[in-house]
Amino acid sequence: MNLRILIAPSGFKESLEADEVADCIEKGILRVLPDAHIQKIPLVDGGEGFTKTLVGVTGGTLHEITVTGPVGQPVKSHFGFLGGTDVKTGILEMAAAAGLRLVPSDARNPLVTTTYGVGELILAALGAGAQRLLIGCGDSGTNDGGAGMAQALGVQLLDQDGKQLGYGGGELCKLDRIDLSKRDRRLAQVQIDVACNWHNVLCGPKGVARVFGPQKGADVETVDKLAAALDKYAAIIQRDLGIDMHYKPGSGASGGLGTGLAALIGAKLHPRYDIVMQYLKLDEMLQNADLVITAEGSIDFQTPRGKIPVEVAQRAKKYNLPVIALAGTIGKDAPVNFDHGIDSFESIVEGPCTLKDAIANAPKLIANEAERVMRLVLVGQQLSSLKRPA
User: Fold this and answer.
1) What is the mean pLDDT of the chain?
2) To which CATH superfamily is domain 50-275 assigned?
3) Per-residue pLDDT averaged across 35-46, rounded?
4) Are 202 and 208 in contact (CB under 8 A)?
5) Strands, E, within the chain: which ranges?
């Protein structure tokens, strides 16, 4: 019987989208098992590829647009409409307007990066007739609590002199009051659902500034400033709007964008896989697999906190399937993933190299590692079939 392999990867941040990773894994497998029965299901979690993937699987439409990028310069972006829906559903991802990929490496300062372009995507979808909005949070290059997004939609975030705050999470330390009177009126007429990481919260020792700020270029001093600014932001939201966002699940998603979406424009936050799996047929494919290979840019202690490899692994274990994860890097406390359904993980890196080189060579590295993994799988099959004399 030919081995049935399900490839269910995430994208590799700043490198390859999920469908490209899946193709690379397939290439490596076929070098070893040309007759393998392969299914591919590129997965998204609200970050890069969310819009294109769900538009593709539903037969929807994609629309290109230029918006304000995270460092204030114009960037090419996109939104879409899902196919096959009774309610005209616009779909967009914050990563397409304010993702880390869009922040040059020498301009990574979350005190000043903005989500303003996310608000412009929402405006474009509303202008194109959206009756419902589906928004993906993930892979952000910002830490402004969704302030820029809200300002693009008419929300007034004012300092003590009644002036609108500027771009960036650092500006939130100046926030004195919130005025929703000029907010786009169409927002009250549409349902807004947000797919986000339910584990991320806005404030506290596990708040988004402290957990993810360093990934976006924040040093220790900057992290402290951002955390203090978001604390003030949450306090004023609670005072002016009566909504407590400090530790609300999902409030810290995408540098606090979850807070801005929920508190300032009336969105409902959802665990991201509750949204994504409505459109992707992962469980159906798992029932027809012998082995699952997943992948992500990094495997570490944060992977069980809502990342794709563990989501795949936990679903695969319902069918007693072995799960192998490929990763660009193996990080701190990665073995914790063995307790969450991943049976083995392997780095694609073949030797010492720079991050720049690893990103540039990712297609080859992924294919090569998939080949090596399959050769080990074959060794395991041979061992299991050995018949030793009594």
Assistant:
1) 94
2) Glycerate kinase, domain 2 (3.90.1510.10)
3) 93
4) yes
5) 4-7, 37-40, 61-68, 74-81, 89-93, 132-136, 156-158, 177-179, 191-196, 268-271, 291-299, 323-330, 344-347
Q: Where are the alpha helices (DSSP H) in 73-219?
A: 95-98, 116-127, 147-152, 208-212
Question: DSSP states of 22-57 as a string?
Answer: HHHHHHHHHHH-TT-EEEE----SSSTTHHHHHHHH
Residue ranges per domain, the chain? 4-43+281-384, 50-275
Q: What is the dihedral of CA 136, 138, 139, 145, to 10 degrees?
A: 100
State whether residue 97 is helix, strand or coil. Answer: helix
Q: pLDDT band at residue 40, thresholds of 50, 70 and 90?
A: very high
Q: Is 340 a residue whose pLDDT tops 70?
A: yes
Query: 271: helix, coil or strand?
Result: strand
The pLDDT tens digits for 154-211 are 999 999 999 999 999 999 999 999 999 999 999 999 999 999 999 999 999 999 999 9
The pTM of the full predicted model, rounded to 2 decimals, is 0.86
Task: Give kind and range of the element (H or E) at residue 257.
Answer: helix 253-259
- Rounded Cα–Cα distance for residues 356 and 358 (Å): 5
Q: Burial-class residue 50 by CB neighbours within 10 Å (0-12, 13-18, 19+).
A: buried
Q: What are the Cα distances from residue 221, in Å, to 50, 57, 224? A: 33, 44, 5
| Number of other CB atoms surrounding residue 357 within 10 Å | 12
- What's the whole-number mean pLDDT along residues 329-340? 95
Question: C-alpha angle 279/53/29, rounded to 5°?
Answer: 100
Task: Report the percentage of the chain scoring pLDDT > 90.
Answer: 84
pLDDT of residue 79: 98
Distance of CA 270 to the CA centre of its chain: 13
Average pLDDT on 54-66 reads 96
What local confidence, expressed as pLDDT, does residue 152 receive? 98
The mean pLDDT of 327-332, rounded to a whole number, is 92
CB atoms within 10 A of CB 132: 18
Nearest to 43 by CA among 14, 77, 20: 20
Quick one: average pLDDT of 97-109? 94
> What's the start-to-end Cα distance of the chain, in Å?
28
CATH fold, domain 4-43+281-384, is Rossmann fold (3.40.50)
